[in-house]
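This section describes the prediction task in plain terms. A model, or a person checking by hand, is given the sequence of a single protein chain and must write out its three-dimensional structure as a string of tokens. No templates, partner chains or ligands are provided. The sample shown here is typical of the held-out split.
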Amino acid sequence: LGGLLLLLPCTSAFLPSTPSSLLSSRSLTLKSAAARHASPLPRPSLAARPSPRFAAALRMAHGKCRAEYIWIGGRGGCGDDYRSKTRVLDKRPTSVSELPLWNYDGSSTGQAPGGDSEIYLQPAFMCADPMRGGDNILVLCEMIDPKNNPIPTSTRSVAKKIFDQAPEEEPWYGIEQEYTLFQDGVPMGWPKSTARPFDIPSPLMQFGYPGPQGPYYCAVGHDVSFGRLICEEHLELCLEAGLNVGGINGEVMPGQWEFQVGPCVGIEAGDHLHMARFLLQRVCEENGVIVSFDPKPIPGNWNGAGCHTNFSTKKMRADGGLKVILDACEKLGKNHEKHIRLYGEGNERRLTGTCETNSIDNFKYGVADRGASIRIPRFTDRDGKGYMEDRRPASNIDPYVVTALIFDTCCLKGDTTAFEAYKNSIQL
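The expected answer:
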């Protein structure tokens, strides 16, 4: 991801049109890809099951715009509680400000009592809808109470206030989102049998059980790569939506994948990551697969799933920036416990000091050290400027919380308590 942070920062307006010819071509491409690569576990073939979104996009003769309003439910911004519903508009808006306020039943999402259940949906970010195509859009919303205040699980406006205190710092983020694909209750590529294998030392040593990790990272092959079609389709949808996704790769554990968002400036990092997660959930929904953002889906000597957050400011990217980075590392160390509290639920199962992590109980930073809390890339150390990587965030973080917290600690006073209400409100 080092190369990503050398790119220009993204903008917040992404509304490209998707012509029907492109959709038709994309449909054929996915079908041919599915025909070439057999699924690692039995599931309906993508080639034999044409997706309804292509046909729907080609029937856009009515001239209307479908806006999919997306928000976060009572479990918070952990990636597995997105809610959405469709509003039909007479025409496609040119900016978020043209979108109408809406509402939803907060008592059905664990965010309001039944006697006062309405929560407003305030559009905050929009992009093209790559699943429906045409002039349709996806709309990420903030959740607002009747007094016009964000509810505790709506963290975007709180984060934005933190970023707005020092826009001259120009904070760039590159976020590495790891996730695990499950099918029939097990990660893709793992066996479903529970029969005991007699005369074998370990009950886990059964036919089809993956060998020790190592062969699966960025691997190519039917017996070492599981779920690639999901990962590839997700990437294509993100690019069609105009999201700033920088790449994908297979991860260390079988069935585990990663996509990278960035470089994005400030609040945009959370906008783009949430929208990319939403699209991943929708791709998995259509293909009968479940995506997990659990930080340690398989116990034992298997890598967990993180959300490594790469960070730099204008001063860090300038000559002499390494000293600014080292100063920031010292500040992060002094606030370690505060950050850990907001770096994802269940992170203690992942940050054990093994499997490319540092222990959750201590803090350290170092050059090219993937066993550290903060890794300083070798290029940064060589050039005397660049960025740093916070390796502590778990895969189920709220990106608004983590990006703003890093900014507050490194660039402001480091004393914000704005996210304590969020921590206390999420329903596990």
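For orientation: The first helix runs from residue 20 to 36.
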